Amino acid sequence: MILGVRWIAxxxxxxxxxxxxxxxxKYSGSGDPSTPSGPTGRLRRRRGSNEVPPEAIKExxxxxxxxxxxxxxxxxxxxxSSVWMIGGFAxxxxxxxxxxWAMVVVIxxxxxxxxxxxxxxxxxxxxxxxxxxxNWHFFFTAMLFVYGRILNQRLANTVTSDKFLYxxxxxxxxxxxxxxxxxxxxxxMWFILTxxxxxxxxxxxxxxxxxxxxxxxxxxxxxxxxxxxxxxxWFLLPVSLIVINDIxxxxxxFFLGRTPLIxxxxxxxxxxxxxxxxxxxxxxFLLANILGRSQWLxxxxxxxSTGWLHCDPGPLFKPEYFALPEWFPWREIPILPVQWHALWxxxxxxxxxxxxxxxxxxxxxxxxxxxxxxxxxxHGGITDRMDCQMVMAVFAYIYHQSFVAPQSTTIEMLxxxxxxxxxxxxxxxxxxxxxxxxxxxxxxxxxxxx
Amino acid sequence: MQKDNDSGGPSTPSGLTGRLRRRKGSNEVPPEVVKAxxNHxxxxxxxxxxxxxxxxxSSVWMIGGFAxxxxxxxxxxWAMVVVIxxxxxxxxxxxxxxxxxxxxxxxxxxxNWHFFFTAMLFVYGRILNQRLANTVTSDTFLHxxxxxxxxxxxxxxxxxxxxxxMWFILTxxxxxxxxxxxxxxxxxxxxxxxxxxxxxxxxxxxxxxxWFLLPASLIVINDIxxxxxxFFFGRTPLIxxxxxxxxxxxxxxxxxxxxxxFVLANILGRFQWLxxxxxxxSTGWLHCDPGPLFKPGYSPVPQWFPQWFPWREIPILPVQWHAAGxxxxxxxxxxxxxxxxxxxxxxxxxxxxxxxxxxHGGITDRMDCQMVMAVFAYIYHQSFIVAQSVSIEVIxxxxxxxxxxxxxxxxxxxxxxxxxxxxxxxx
Lengths: 450, 427
Fold this sequence. Notes:
Strand content of chain A: under 5%
Number of domains of chain A: 2
Order of helices and strands of chain A: HHHHHHHHHHHEEHHEEHHHHH
Distance between the termini of chain A: 87 Å
Largest interface: A-B, 74 and 76 residues
Oligomer: homodimer
Structural class of chain A: mainly alpha
Low-confidence stretches of chain A: 1-61
Largest sheet of chain A: 2 strands, antiparallel
Shape of chain A: flat
Radius of gyration of chain A: 27 Å
């Protein structure tokens, strides 16, 4: 607090009591500042804690972190909250798949709440009671749809022991799409029936905004959860790479940053960007080796239990030994094939994922907001932390589906799936379909050979 | 009438008194129309016969063209859906574009079409990959190309999308951020609305033209019946959003739709061209075993039917009961798509989405109820008619994408062995 006052006095301005109160309350997370009138009788305009103070926007050149005198203080606060976030995250990883899923759901709810609140205009909302409830209705429908699709098979595998529950779950799986559709249509009809005469434009904008938020939030979280159940490795590695990239960019920029990177984010520098890229790719290679040795992280979870996991990790996690030149202390090093995949993930995390951050910065500039929220001291809201993660989660899922799964899917695995998950009728059905597909191709090839 | 038929906007003549008239875009609602809310029922409109003639003329052309395309087959229907999509997207893209801001942002419209192309590749690649694989069995080179495409389909579409995303960010201009973000969000909403319903429509088409033709016809019948019931009997307004709609039209159309659904399903269900699914992308004639839904069950005519009725028992296809359900949905819930579009036009003060079709407005005006119906028809079909387990689809997908042809054959042999043991072991 004292540092804050000294900083403002150093800047050569009359101590702006309101600005000081705003900064302090933002760090400690308490309520809005009030509007005192100063001794000269002028009413100071209440500055929302989310608005960018105008002098920050004008001095574009001197915004680099190297020049900011307050940087050590802010670095301490950011480090403090980062340590808490990383510690909590590591604990959840230890607890297991189901708890990670719960964490993703909680993060989603907070992100959606921040984003729903963002463009809401208070005075119009008073005319429309129940409109916020509509937003949460759509949120609930989306959650049912997305998680129902991803987890229906695993849900069925969990309740095989109880006949009644199994019937209930199979019925749920069968009519899952219809249920979600009718929930959505109910929300759609409710929206239309509550359109009020002079508020059409506001209501339609809010409706579109709700859809955009839900799409952004649920696409990436559904892919994240799909990755988790394929093996925590495929969730933990991309997330860690983004965190490493962020931290490395921050410190490279802190100590070496000179050339600004992009006008959208004036605090980012080319030195930070390149330094972080090299660091990320290197740590991807190493981290994959370390993480790939743990069965807790590499085994897929076939049901919704929480116990310990044992499985055959598959060809990707079996070490191959490479011989090294003489001047190295070790004769040969074990390389897991998955490390080469991790290199690609690292490359993407350092080059393309930051564009998620640029998008969020541009968005904040467009709508003149400083942060999406203020839940995390020194970092802003949850959406501020998740912007790059979202782009990475989608890429990790698609990469896994296209390049990793074909390598690690074997005939035995598919046979196991078929025998375990399908009833006899379904197996016969699959058999006929597969036969049709193969015979079609066989006929074509033999025709060609003749 | 001039507004409905001409394409360009009116110019700005300055009147003899020297006043400059504000140029009224052909899409803006003339203020007197909005104020006289009560006098809007079709019964009171003097010009109604003239407008009815124009609507009938263009309706006849639309229905005729549609019937021709149905006769041509699945591939041509798909092409028609794609063409309709392109026109809808173009209408909607143009709608909220502001001319003076666009002049400073070159290449921004190109970005919209880039996202459109990516969405098309993604959606149709997913639906048709299985059928595409079945079509190119004869040529090994094409076969390799197609399997490569199927395998790397998601990655390709993802990188196309990311390229567009990065292009968008790199072309953000200083004082235009808000406009550009608004346009970006608008583009996404349009593509979602347009592609969700068209992807479900195309999925329905390849399951059997019946499942595309019946819902589309029901919406058309509902529209036409509501128009004529409102024309002759309309008195009580239905909803403030659409002042021309009446309760009499709504209820009359509901009855007409459910009845015609029942009858139409019987007529349409007798043709193999309409009821057989298409397994590949060929265009030839189709023969198949239609399945239990399309086999007539004879039920005796009830006692209270008059004596002169020639038939003692009537053939009812089981699918007719499903059709009654579809009819119910299309008369009660699908009109909400029309209300949504009306509310949207009121909110943004536009009269029609476009002016391609004389008497009806733009293509989006015709498709608004169809969109809601297409999604419902697909979901109904997947849940109640096919009753296909999601697990089979997931496993088939995995087999198709992750195994080579030899591995697939090996899996098939193994499965054959195990199933034979199971089936013959039990008997």
